[in-house]
Amino acid sequence: MSKAPAAVTASQELDEFNPFLSMAQLFDNAARLLNLDEGMQEVLRRPDRELTVSLPIVMDDGSTKVFTGYRVQHNFLRGPCKGGIRFAPDVNLDEVRALSAWMTWKCSVVDIPFGGGKGGVICDPRELSKRELEQITRRYTASIMDILGPDRDVPAPDMNTDEQTMAWIMDTYSMHVRRTTTAVVTGKPISIGGSRGRREATGRGVMLVCREAMKRLGRRPENTRVIVQGSGNVGGIGALLLYREGYKIISLSDMYGAIVNENGLDVPQVLEHLRQHRRLEGYPEAESVANADQIFMDCDVLVPAATENQITSRNANRIKARLIVEGANGPTTAAAQEILDERGVTVVPDILANAGGVTVSYFEWVQDRMGYFWTEEIVNTRLEQAIVKAFNDVNDTAKKYDVSMRTAAYVLAIERVANVYRMRGVFG
Ligand code: NAD
Predict the structure, then answer these.
(1) How far is the CA of 120 from the centre of ligand 1 (A)?
(2) β-pairing, 225-229 with 301-304?
(3) Which of 60, 93, 374, 386 is 20 to 30 Å apart from 128, CA to CA?
(4) pLDDT tens per residue across span 301-329
(5) Which regions of the chain carry the CATH code 3.40.50.10860?
(6) 347/243 Cα distance (integer angstroms)
(7) CATH number belonging to domain 201-353
(8) CATH number of the domain located at residue range(s) 47-182 in this protein
(9) Which one of 133, 233, 297 would you pick to mutate in the ligand 1 pocket, going by the greatest count of ligand atoms within 8 A of its CB?
């Protein structure tokens, strides 16, 4: 029987929903297990650099509006900072801080030579024209130019940014440095230095870790019922690849609502409907369900692939899935993880489950610097090797310390970064 959730005060809830504090709590747990000394903890907990920029934009109606953008570089001990840029109305500095720290740990878990960074612009892309989005992207790039570069900080897409956004960033940077510099961003169109397989890479990583976790649980994909929250780059492609592996995808959602078919959705058809109508609503072979109810429906596997703070101390007891594969960054709060641990729910944590994207971003950066491009088969094979190895490393660490996969992923990641720090020494 599961425990009733403890009463939560307003300030506790605020803390729980602050992704940076949530990340710090997970960091502290792992640091304690590693017996990291106080000084090292202080170094690794804090972001190295934070930049806030004002972006004046002439709007289509002739008015001038000033947007706010952030770029946070959490850590670059293992290599250039790596991390996406998101455009959303609720972007804030603490969120970008947390996301940049997660990138440090994620790059370390998959053992690629990057540190962590993240960026964001406060805007609602649904209310902006393509020209306005281009202006915001170019001005943002120009404003953070001093800390960008293939050897310094290499952005990528995230929520509401895509290949087109990356093309504008690459062009703006290249115009400023007076030479085409493809390796300054990843997730670009293939025709301008993008990598084959990058668009699908995060979803492919989600599918691969799901497969590894299912093997450990002694389960097969057939008749395994999966709910996917979000149907963008991660959720949509993750759902498609899981569907092709034989899983039954019973529900998908987007920001407007969820659709359900207990017999399994025809995912390629759903994605075609989404492409044509820009929302899932109205897909004929499914029922509509409110977003607020979707993740609590009966299923075997839940893939939260939309946004942060979806599984919290308030609702973790209502989750029916026995396996959660985190496509999104930070969908489960630290407090909710404790409840899921007590209930014996296996969680493949974000910094492992969605690391496929950054892994192929690394491959893209390598290809750009070599000027020699790989086949999709090579990209996918190397991605699979990296993700399966990372899964096994995390699993072994979980056994060694007798902890959840989330704590194990932090332990592994922090230990690797701390080791580099010890080797390089304290500069100053
Ligand atoms: P996206 O913009 O392509 O898609 C987001 C999807 O979530 C859309 O379908 C949107 O409608 C939906 N959505 C938003 N709010 C929702 C809500 N409350 N309920 C249900 N659906 C909702 O973004 P993405 O690139 O797929 O990113 C999704 C998550 O994955 C983010 O947390 C992001 O940081 C993380 N992530 C992305 C990548 C990548 O390569 N794109 C890599 C690692 C992690």
Answers:
(1) 14
(2) parallel
(3) 93
(4) 999 999 999 999 999 999 999 999 999 99
(5) 47-182
(6) 20
(7) 3.40.50.720
(8) 3.40.50.10860
(9) 233
